[in-house]
Amino acid sequence: MAFIFSCEDETTINFSETSIIDEDETTVEINIPKAEGKTEAAKKINATLSLFVNSALNIGVDSNTKTNAEESIEGFKKAYKDFKTQIGKTLYTNLPPWEVLIDGEVIYKSKTLTSIAMNSSINTGGAQSVLTFKFYNFDSKTGKELKTKDLLNDVSAFTDLAKKYYDKELLSAKNERIKAFETDIFALPENLGFSENGVIVFYETFNSATNNVIEFTISYTVANDYLNF
């Protein structure tokens, strides 16, 4: 039986914000949620969000993902200095500074589910920044990261429902956007998001020359029959 989403004042986890700004030869700005308390749930959530941050900053060819933001920032700065030294032998202009912006936001929380949106923008001197966006969903009581199969009681049926919304979005899109998202096989994105208004379905082409997105929300009045939480 599907759980009906509702706004809860009493939740198992409260959040503050971790903010870090490091401006040197590189610029790093991090603003992400932090689960408060010493519970296992808080530790698991913070560890998952830290992994997103550390992975974003880990661009050195021979470096391993660090265990905390401070080490990751130092590794990012070292990667820049190493690259600057290497490229400086053949480049006769100043190397543009590298910049990283990492943001996160709690977009839904209840006694059963916490949904967080995370994104990063990394510019290492290219024509455009490398963008990454991901939803994380957690069991509020245990901190376990929930996958699509955990959230939906019938993935196939929900996929059919999402396809109707997807097709509607493309009907009003411009030709280049339609082309960017044309596919013979429709599938749900890797992660779904949850807000007070419903289930967020988000597609992007951040790994292409143009940063196109398709985003729509399926209201809980429609989606509740498919949800486990």
Any overview of this molecule?
With 229 residues, the protein is of the alpha+beta class. The protein contains 6 helices and 8 strands, in the order E-E-H-H-E-E-E-H-H-H-E-E-E-H. Strands 1-2-3-4-5 form a 5-stranded mixed sheet, covered by helices on one side. A 3-stranded antiparallel sheet has the order 6-7-8. Strand 4 and strand 5 (130-139) form a beta hairpin. Helix 1 packs parallel to helix 2 (69-87). The longest helix is centred in the middle third of the chain and has 19 residues, at 69-87. The termini are close together.
Features of the shown structure:
alpha+beta, five-stranded mixed beta sheet, three-stranded antiparallel beta sheet, 30% helix
What is the strand and helix layout of this fold?
Layout: E1 15-23, E2 27-35, H1 40-57, H2 69-87, E3 99-109, E4 113-123, E5 130-139, H3 148-151, H4 155-171, H5 175-181, E6 193-194, E7 198-204, E8 213-219, H6 220-223
Parallel strand pairs: 2-3
Antiparallel strand pairs: 1-2, 3-4, 4-5, 6-7, 7-8
Helix pairs in contact: 1-2
Question: Structural class, from helix and strand content?
Answer: alpha+beta
Q: Please give the radius of gyration in angstroms.
A: 20 Å
The parts where pLDDT drops under 50 for at least 5 residues are: 1-10
Report the sheet-strand fraction.
25-35%
Order of helices and strands: EEHHEEEHHHEEEH
Instruction: Choose one word for the global shape.
Output: flat
Q: How do the strands line up in the largest sheet? A: 1-2-3-4-5
Structure at a glance:
It contains six helices and eight strands.
